[in-house]
Amino acid sequence: MNDSLLTSDVKKLKDSLGVLPEPSVNPALIVVSGLPGSGKSYFSRRLAERLPLPIIESDAMRQVLAPKPTYSAAESERLFSACHTLIGDLLRKGVSLIFDATNLIEYHREQLYRIADKAYAKLILVRMEAPPELVQQRMERRRNGDDPNDKSDADWHVYKKMTATAERIRRNHLAVDSSRDIAPAIEKIVREVRR
Description:
This protein is an alpha/beta fold. The chain has a single domain, classed as P-loop containing nucleotide triphosphate hydrolases (Rossmann fold, 3-Layer(aba) Sandwich), CATH 3.40.50.300. Helix content is 50%, strand content 13%. The protein contains eight helices and five strands; from the N terminus they run αβαβααβαβααβα. Strands 2-3-1-4-5 form a five-stranded parallel sheet, sandwiched between helices.
């Protein structure tokens, strides 16, 4: 991807975040990963109620760059190049944030580990999970357009396909089952960020 397109994409994504919080000396990168329908975006929004941080949600960011997404490899590469660049820029400026994306492959997560390390940011990894029958119900509600905050197009077919590619997170992380009370996990992250 050429530099001018990347710069333009990063600016569009940053502008879509609105007003950013005050910088801090010890910024945090909270990476929320998991299969479609596992509750990543809901968890991220609830966390942002407790920690007013920008959420870089890959589904919403994709729509900023590609209003009619194709989900092609080239489009995804463009999206994640811009997201990763923006994350690095914000962390270097001391802005903590939440990154909400499937992030199922360790190689892709390693890029985020390097970004956090380079910015001396606190890295908090969260793996969302949910029982398949609950995911199926969520996909049904998504298809019906029940949640206006849901930016994902992933359906049950995508979920099943992605299940085969999911790799375990090799670093210390918090596993959260979204079919249960998520408040304790949120409080744990709040304490960790503020520590």
